[in-house]
Amino acid sequence: MQQSSICYLNGDFLPLEEARVSVLDRGFIFGDGIYEMIPAFSGHAFRLQEHLQRLQNSLDAVHIRNPHSLEEWSQLIHAVIEKNRTGHQAIYLQVTRGVAHRDHAFPDVSEPTVFIMSNPLPVSREVKPVSATILEDPRWNNCDIKAISLLPNVLLRQKARERGAYEAILIRDGLLTEGAASNVFIVRDGIVRTSPKDSRILPGITRDLIVELLHKHEIPCEEREITEADVRAADEIWLTSSTREIVPVTQLDGVPVGTGELGPVWRQTVELYQSFKDTFTGAEAA
Ligand SMILES: Cc1ncc(COP(=O)(O)O)c(C=O)c1O
After folding, report:
1. Candidate of 151, 176, 195, 202 to mutate for ligand 1, largest count of ligand atoms within 8 Å of Cβ
2. CATH code for 130-278?
3. Of 87, 127, 170, 277, whose CB count within 10 A is highest?
4. Which of 122, 93, 247, 255 is nearest to 184 (CA)?
5. What is the pTM assigned to this prediction?
6. Ligand 1 in reach of 194 Cβ (< 6 A)
């Protein structure tokens, strides 16, 4: 029988299937909470400081008190990693406003609910190009908050799947925002472009690292608005996220992207990303 994974819930480490929260938890009732997804390679949480800063930003934006210091978060996360020591892991953490009688306004007193779990993160260097479809972005104007209320993203991803595509690439007012669960990069004439960071997109940790690496290695990269026409005319399209890293899109709405083959700038960027990861020793995992 497969061994159960160990999670953390409000002060205790326990098998995942034994973890329980109240039905009055505001995360369950209202989707009133935020989350993070942090990859851990060989026991070390990758870009931990950046993830914990984004966690703080999300908590501040929704006025949930951060129940832990950076040091405490780091210890809790590494304790979960340690207890599930099986190769690479995807660490999911969630903080909700806690348990209270149902009323939309914030409760006078509530303790945030804190939950951390680990899932195996299959990391393979085998390339799996994907297809994508363009959909209208119907979400709210606070997409920079990593909120657990993901119903629009769930419906968008499902609609993409029903169209036979892996990901939905979202357009709002004629402009590219992001994917249902990823950021989007395009390449045209050797120039890499991604949407600017504002309330229409999640400031992806992978996105930021790619922008940083491209600048460092003097590969032209622009953070500026991208039209739907730009996306459809791109030579390359990539989807980025902490768990899937840099995924090439070779078909968009049934039409080949560029040549329909893996792009040269994608190859170069993946190499930069992989060598950055290879030099990652956990030193930044304070
Ligand atoms: C809507 C959305 N945008 C972007 C991303 C990528 O963010 P990160 O690189 O931090 O995983 C995600 C990740 O899940 C996401 O859900």
Report:
1. 202
2. 3.20.10.10
3. 170
4. 247
5. 0.96
6. no
> Which parts of 150-190 are beta strand (E)?
167-172, 175-179, 183-188
Q: Which listed residue (128, 146, 159, 277) is catalytic? A: 146
Q: So what CATH class is 6-120? A: alpha beta
Beta carbon of 178 within 6 Å of any ligand 1 atom: yes
146 is catalytic: yes
In tens, the pLDDT along 116-155 reads 999 999 887 788 999 999 999 999 999 999 999 999 999 9
For 51-99, how does the pLDDT look when each residue is reduced to its tens digit (9 = 90+)? 999 999 999 999 999 999 999 999 999 999 999 987 899 999 999 999 9
Residue 143 CA, closest ligand 1 atom number: 1
At 88, list the tokens: 């690479």
* Banded model confidence at residue 48, pLDDT cuts 50, 70, 90: very high
**Cα distances (angstroms) measured from residue 211 to each of 44, 264, 269:** 22, 17, 10
Question: From the CA of 206, how far away is ligand 1's center (Å)?
Answer: 8
Structural domain boundaries in the chain: 6-120, 130-278
Q: H-type helices in 134-190, by residue range?
A: 151-162
DSSP per-residue string spanning 54-94: HHHHHHHHHT----S-HHHHHHHHHHHHHHT-SSSEEEEEE
Ligand 1 atom at shortest distance from the alpha carbon of 208: 9
**pLDDT at residue 1 tops 50:** no
The rounded distance, in Å, linking the Cα atoms of 238 and 249 is 6
Around 149, how many Cα atoms within 13 Å sit in the side-chain half-sphere?
17
Region of 136 (left: φ > 0; alpha: ψ -120 to 50; beta: rest) is beta
- Counting every residue written for the chain, the total comes to 286
